[in-house]
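pipeline/complex-builder :: batch 7 item 3
reading input block
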Amino acid sequence: GENVEQHPSTLSVQEGDSAVIKCTYSDSASNYFPWYKQELGKRPQLIIDIRSNVGEKKDQRIAVTLNKTAKHFSLHITETQPEDSAVYFCAASLLQGGSEKLVFGKGTKLTVNP
Amino acid sequence: EPEVTQTPSHQVTQMGQEVILRCVPISNHLYFYWYRQILGQKVEFLVSFYNNEISEKSEIFDDQFSVERPDGSNFTLKIRSTKLEDSAMYFCASLFRAGELFFGEGSRLTVL
């Protein structure tokens, strides 16, 4: 089955700096890669996702890149703000027949210091 | 904005007791899921449900677990005889078609 590795487990940056979180996946059939942000005690919320037919996607300060050959994808947050502090999870799945089972990485605790 | 709702938000139970966690998925969604998150750990897939039957389940989802959609709106997770290691946050999620999975706020289960 799919296995997702995520690094680093913790990341501390100064406000205004960039943050990069990296994930690798094992199943070359996976074709959908979402990123979730989870604040303490809250539900995971989708912040950006990418499908395997695209190499990069950007939404304001957030971007995701995908390298299918190497089976890795990354989240980039630019101009970080204290409210970006949270745990970020990457995930991978195979979209098939509309259903998807997400396999999550272990999470990265991002701290943005003012 | 429509959302997935879960009850209870927190349940404390004694080991060996049965627990039912309830979820109301978004009304036009077709696929339903339960995930769990042990404190400080990653979110883990338990089970997916489509067309009134389980479509996939993980190794965590053993005979002590069951899911049901008793009516057109509710989706429940039952744990027959709880163990200490079942203590976790349980998230229900739903999906219309391929794409964003919407999570509920979670039900925290504490087994004593």
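note: The mean pLDDT of chain A is 93.
queue -> next item
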